[in-house]
């Protein structure tokens, strides 16, 4: 029996036992009727089509227009790559997030375009720009300057559902999905993975999270503040105590599905996530990163693997970087091609 056929069987069986499906259905139903109002070719990158949503349905953190971009391969393909853009976060005392979208956002597809060129099969592509300030998950309106007027719209959940529903409409027969994002985009893969499984129950899904590991400052007051700002508790998996406070553990619920694999890249002391946003010391951030990812790797050694490097860099600066003689590019290729040399790499 081939490995791919065995994976398909296991994935199908897992649908009978995978928890959280009903809650995922509810999320899709909540905003599932939103559709784009117009489309046009992207003026910055050839071959991409932008789909724009009404600002009364979907908008950015300050009320600006939201869109997603799609690129359909000329050949018939059941493969799909989705790129989630990064760009900070906003909560009380931390107003540092990408406020709007632009046509240049599609340039983040450079990585998946290079990856597509290295793979033997063709892939359809989607770019979901980031502009909600809540790592693609928020579902609130906020008045952060206390003047009794809404000044921040955290529409991450709404924008995400609308984007993926359109993606499913355009590419309904997808059987293999590669979902990736850096920084806030990496955090965004946590929710998008759940929504994608709801839309594509039989597809093999590969998640590459680059420097967005789903970590929060391990402090109850911090969690309560972020939850109050974004309304994350409505999304939290059931029967998961550590999920309140550490979003990385939300992956656990999905890794029970053998059709899902997750690769995580990070530096040990990422200064953007650890120092700038979470206000943690480098040593404490490293300890939290290693502890939480150790937990998932120990529980799902064949499905969750890491490429952790020394230093404090954020996102991937050099995909030819080597650890123990293995280039990051080669690690990614082994991951998506399900090769035996996809290993857990700790520098």
From TrEMBL:
Transmembrane segments: none annotated. One of its GO terms (molecular function) is hydrolase activity. The keyword Iron does not apply. SUPFAM superfamilies: alpha/beta-Hydrolases. The keyword Signal applies. Keywords: Signal. Residues 1-25 form the signal peptide. This is Pectinacetylesterase. The lineage of its organism: Bacteria, Pseudomonadati, Bacteroidota, Flavobacteriia, Flavobacteriales.
């Amino acid at each position: 029996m081939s490995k791919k056929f065995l994976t398909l069987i296991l994935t199908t069986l897992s649908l009978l036992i995978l928890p959280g499906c009903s809650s995922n259905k509810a999320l899709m139903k909540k905003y599932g009727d939103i559709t784009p109002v117009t489309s046009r070719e992207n003026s910055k990158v050839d071959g991409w089509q932008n789909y724009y949503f009404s600002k009364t349905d979907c908008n950015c953190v300050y009320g600006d227009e939201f869109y997603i971009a799609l690129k359909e391969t000329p050949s018939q393909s059941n493969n799909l790559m989705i790129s989630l853009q990064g760009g900070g976060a906003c909560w009380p005392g931390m107003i540092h997030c990408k406020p709007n979208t632009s046509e240049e956002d599609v340039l983040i597809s450079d990585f998946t375009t290079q990856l597509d060129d290295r793979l033997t099969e063709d892939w359809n592509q989607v770019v979901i720009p980031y502009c909600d300030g809540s790592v693609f998950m928020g579902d609130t309106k906020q008045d952060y300057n206390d003047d009794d007027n809404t000044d921040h719209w955290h529409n991450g959940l709404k924008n995400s559902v609308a984007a993926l529903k359109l993606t499913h409409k355009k590419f309904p027969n997808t059987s293999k999905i590669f979902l990736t994002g850096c920084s806030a985009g990496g955090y965004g893969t946590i929710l998008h993975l759940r929504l994608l499984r709801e839309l594509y129950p039989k597809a093999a899904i590969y998640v590459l999270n680059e420097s967005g590991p789903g970590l929060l400052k391990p402090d109850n007051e911090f969690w309560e503040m972020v939850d109050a700002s974004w309304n994350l508790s409505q999304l939290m998996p059931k029967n998961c105590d550590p999920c309140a406070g550490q979003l990385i553990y939300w992956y656990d619920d999905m890794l029970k599905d053998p059709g899902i694999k997750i690769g995580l890249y990070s530096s040990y002391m990422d200064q953007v996530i650890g120092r700038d946003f979470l206000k943690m010391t480098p040593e404490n951030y490293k300890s939290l990163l290693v502890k939480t990812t150790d937990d998932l790797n120990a529980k799902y050694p064949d499905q969750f693997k890491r490429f952790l490097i020394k230093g404090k860099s954020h996102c991937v600066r050099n995909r030819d970087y080597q650890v123990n003689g293995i280039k990051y590019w080669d690690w990614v290729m082994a991951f998506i091609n399900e090769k035996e040399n996809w290993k857990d790499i700790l520098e």
